[in-house]
Design a protein that fits this description.
five-stranded antiparallel sheet; about 25% helix; DNA repair; disordered N terminus; four-stranded antiparallel sheet; Immunoglobulin-like; nucleus; about 270 residues; alpha+beta; transcription
Length: about 270
């Protein structure tokens, strides 16, 4: 692979900054948020927190690899678009502004706030100069509450219902830790045939290798449970197996429907 890469990035004319054919680079990321209930003591000690706010929350982008933020150097900045009730509603975090003071296991691309309501956060990821790629638009549904109140039409009262994990979501709820809620999504940023200059400066040296085992991933961040995640090669293989099993079941159901259709067609023909 390295020999092939060396050959394709050598200049063939006056400029070597061309797209690298047949090269595809994937960078794993976690889009997530956590929240905990505010205590009355916190509200009293901090007059800036509005009285109606019930939770302290964070939203962030982080790397699931052992290198953490160092493996996100290809990102120039990230903007988080919050609800319009927050001022300013758009928060911008630049990579160079935090990486020198980066604290282990605490994401640099992070926004912390307090609030009471859930909403969808718009996220834009901008890449370092030379990528010649447009920004990447993502969305994250902010999770605050460890349960939901559903009106019981028979009693007229509200029943507590637990949070339901959405497709692709890794959801953790711990009511013993101030109602802590963590909502993580795994994703990959794909650079298909990146430009040579961007590749050599920002993508080639960074080895985006995830933890081999889920236990290693959890152990790496056990000192900061707010960002503790299970994403690993092992989990990726388990997910692939789950998808393959689902595909096999879908094919079996389709074949069964085809068989039933053919039998009905034969019955009608007779």
């Amino acid at each position: 692979m390295d020999e092939y890469v060396d050959s394709v990035i050598k200049p063939t004319n006056n400029s070597n900054n061309k797209r690298l054919k047949n090269i595809c680079i994937k960078k794993p990321i976690i889009i997530g948020n956590n929240s905990v209930r505010l205590t009355e003591e916190e509200k009293l000690n901090n007059p800036k927190i509005p009285r109606e706010h019930t939770h302290r929350w964070q939203i962030f982008i982080m790397s699931p690899t052992p290198k953490g933020d160092l493996d996100l150097s290809f990102i120039k900045k990230i903007t988080f678009k919050l609800h319009d009730s927050y001022q300013p509603a758009v928060r911008t975090i630049e990579y160079q502004s935090f990486i020198k003071q980066s604290t282990q296991n605490v994401p640099g691309f992070l926004v912390e706030e307090t609030g009471w309501g859930e909403f969808e956060v718009g996220i834009k990821i901008y890449f370092q100069d030379g990528s010649q790629e447009k920004f990447l638009q993502l969305y994250h549904p902010l999770r605050l509450h460890s349960y939901y109140l559903i009106l019981n039409n028979e009693t007229g009262e509200y029943d507590q219902k637990p949070c339901v994990q959405k497709e692709g979501e890794n959801l953790t709820v711990d009511n013993e830790k101030n109602g802590m809620v963590k909502s993580f999504y795994y994703d990959e940023i794909v650079f298909n045939e990146p430009y040579a200059d961007f590749f050599t400066k920002w993508l080639m040296e960074s080895n985006s290798i995830m933890f081999t085992n889920t236990s290693d991933a959890l152990k790496s961040s056990e000192n900061n449970v707010l960002y503790q995640h299970p994403f690993s090669e092992e989990m990726e293989l388990d997910e692939l197996e789950r998808l393959e099993n689902g595909l096999s079941k879908a094919e079996e159901m389709l074949n069964d429907l085809r068989r039933q259709y053919m039998e009905k067609q034969k019955a009608l023909a007779n």
